[in-house]
Design goal:
Layout: H1 3-20, H2 23-27, H3 29-53, H4 57-93, E1 96-98, H5 121-124, E2 128-130, E3 136-138, H6 139-146
Antiparallel strand pairs: 1-2, 2-3
The structure holds zinc ion (2 copies).
Protein name: RING-type domain-containing protein
InterPro entries: RING-type_E3_ligase_ATL, Znf_RING, Znf_RING/FYVE/PHD
GO molecular function: zinc ion binding
Amino acid sequence: MSDHVEYLDFIESKLPFWRSLSTENVRDERNFDLLLATYEQVWDGIEVILKYWGHDEVVKKRAKRLRREISSDCKGLLKKRTDALIPLEECVESMEVKSVGASSGGEEIERESCVVCMEEFGVSGVEARVTECGHYFHFNCIFKWFQSNPCCPLCRVKLCDY
Ligand SMILES: [Zn+2]
Ligand SMILES: [Zn+2]
């Protein structure tokens, strides 16, 4: 058996596993990126096979079918990712907003730092989100943090329901 047929066998054997990964699995950005990169890699592999062995009707048919399946799985993966992020977004949205800067009456946190990015709030002047445990973070920073950890980066209190 030649390499390209083995490669198609490999993809076919892996597809059910990739497909079985749940919304919970892809909530973690690292898992999601890894899976997306894997799909891109096998997609490229299929393109190469079609280029060099496309004259073989059997190989061509099988490669094209796998390419279609990967395409539809990728769409499924993106939807899972969106579904996984919506609750996190709601969790951050529901937090109290704290304005930064003297004019908005929030100067007391101007010199404090968001521990996720280590930047003082006064630097960008971007409003902060206040957690239930009373800690301040940028919206984007805490949202990104929640994608892999449901607890407060400072005091470890659980803030998200997952
Ligand atoms: Zn930050
Ligand atoms: Zn906290």
